Amino acid sequence: MEGKQIADKTIEQWIKQHPVLEEIMNTNEVFWVNPAYGNPNPKNKLTKTDIDDAAKRLKRFAPYIAKVFPETLETDGIIESPIKQIHSMQKTMEQQYDVVFQQNLLLKCDSHLPISGSIKARGGIYEVLKHAEELACKHGIISDDQDYTQFDSKAFKALFSNYEISVGSTGNLGLSIGIMSAQLGFKVTVHMSADAKQWKKDLLHSKGVQVIEYQSDYSKAVIEGRKQAEKNSRCYFIDDENSKTLFLGYAVAASRLKEQLQTMDIKVDAEHPLFVYLPCGVGGGPGGVTFGLHAEFGDHVHCFFAEPTNSPCFLLGQMTGLQDKVSVQDFGLSNKTDADGLAVGRTSSFVGETVENMLSGCYTIQDARLYAFLRDLADTESILLEPSALAGFYGPVQLMTQQSGQNYIKKHNLQGKMNEALHLIWATGGNMVPHDVMQGYYETGKNVDL
Three-state DSSP class for 196? Predict the structure, then answer.
């Protein structure tokens, strides 16, 4: 790749400016700290009012959700996940990596969100509901002060059957949008990349969702989905790369998390910093959560995104400042990973620019380590996640053991506060994985020797 030009620089010039790029290009695991963290950001046009509006909309739809998805009755139709303390897993990690976490490690179990079993249940379902509400209001059959259980009626389904929804996805976003759209009565098409798991395609087919497969990666599926939707005035394309609606659906998680922590009598303030570790694909899910967390906790929260060594698109977009103008393939990386939800070659500029001053950093993790964490979590806590959802586990280890992590702690005057620091790992998916597929993941993990 010597002499290759990317934007206004050669590969060699990029490496000279960012020496860690050489490690990234060699698919070594890295821990990168964002120099723009805490800077002013005039590019961000969203506010907490936008998040509050999304939360209110989800509350309006809660009676409908409770009616059509009985698994949400316990939470009155609010799609939310528990937080778990993982004492046994924490001991295993401390022993394996020779590190000590003074406070209990916490796991945010979006892997067990109802309806579609992943973090995508937040943004994906929210955007479908918002679109359905707008159509129903436009046709004069609902207003926001009425009973939303009406959405489960022949009249509403008859209306929605005249419209289509489509999305490009590696899997979990397609599941959340496909399941919710089909329930409302929309015709749904999910454009899926070659790395999407077969069981996810099969599940969508069983819900009556049309699946169009591409031999290329996620970006191609999105481009083709967008093109086809543009030809049909009745087709609404949910754009994972550019959607503010998706982003705000994810952001609602933060205020709910704050309530959960308060219920657990856990403080987040200047003396009790919160570190959050989020698996990252194109960026919408972790970006939205990060935006929400900063709206709730300000500079007392520190968010790190986790990406596979072969697919660090968000890291490259942020580090170079090129956002979606650069792909992982430009730097010689394959974008091939077993973490299918994270197999994204090009980041979202919208998300990257919105959270560029809120992101503490990014780190990469090899597939083998994902499987090792999967095995250990199953053995110690009997919690089963899909490979991509394990990416967050390496974050607290890297923060505490890497020089760049220690530099971050010093730069932000956190040295004397780490004994009170809370580490929260965001588990993003796995509850809907078929038993035989999950068993295969576990067997792979048993054979890993790092």
Answer: coil
CA distances from 110 to 35, 163, 185, 224 (A): 29, 30, 26, 29
Query: pTM for the whole thing?
Result: 0.96
Which run of H or E residues covers position 435? Answer: helix 435-446
Contact by Cβ (8 Å): 117, 429? yes
The whole-angstrom separation of Cα 79 and Cα 170 is: 22
Please compute the mean of the pLDDT values over residues 337-357 and round it to a whole number: 94
Rounded CA-CA distance 385/427 in Å is: 7
Q: Give exposure, 183-211, as e/b (b: 16+ Cβ within 10 Å).
A: bbbbbbbbbbbebbbeebbebbeeeebeb
Q: Tell me the residue type at 246.
A: L
What is the total residue count of the chain? 450
421-448: per-residue pLDDT in tens? 999 999 999 999 999 999 999 999 999 9
Tens digit of each residue's pLDDT (9 = 90 or more) over 83-131: 999 999 999 999 999 999 999 999 999 999 999 999 999 999 999 999 9
What is the Cβ-side half-sphere exposure of residue 211, based on CA atoms within 13 angstroms?
26
Torsion sign across C-alpha atoms 393, 382, 116, 258: negative
Distance, in Å, from the CA atom of 239 to the CA atom of 225, rounded to the nearest integer, reads: 9
- Rounded to whole angstroms, how far apart are CA atoms 170 and 341? 6
Query: Two tokens at 407?
Result: 């530099």
Output helix, strand, coil percentages for the chain, rounded to the nearest 5. 50, 15, 35
| Selection from 315, 446, 328, 243 nearest residue 35 by Cα | 315
The packing angle between helices 172-184 and 198-206, to 10°, is 0
Q: How many CA atoms lie within 13 A of 68 on its CB side?
A: 18
- The reported pLDDT for the residue numbered 39 is 93
Query: Distance of CA 254 to CAs 61, 297, 426, Å?
Result: 19, 9, 12
**Both tokens of residue 226?**
């967008």
- Compute φ and ψ for 202, nearest 5 degrees: -65, -40
Residue closest to 165 by CA, chosen among 221, 232, 120: 232
Distances (CA, A) of 212 to 9, 174, 196, 234, 442: 37, 11, 11, 19, 29
DSSP assignment string, 3-23: T-EETTEEHHHHHHH-THHHH
Which residues are 108's β-sheet partners? 83, 426
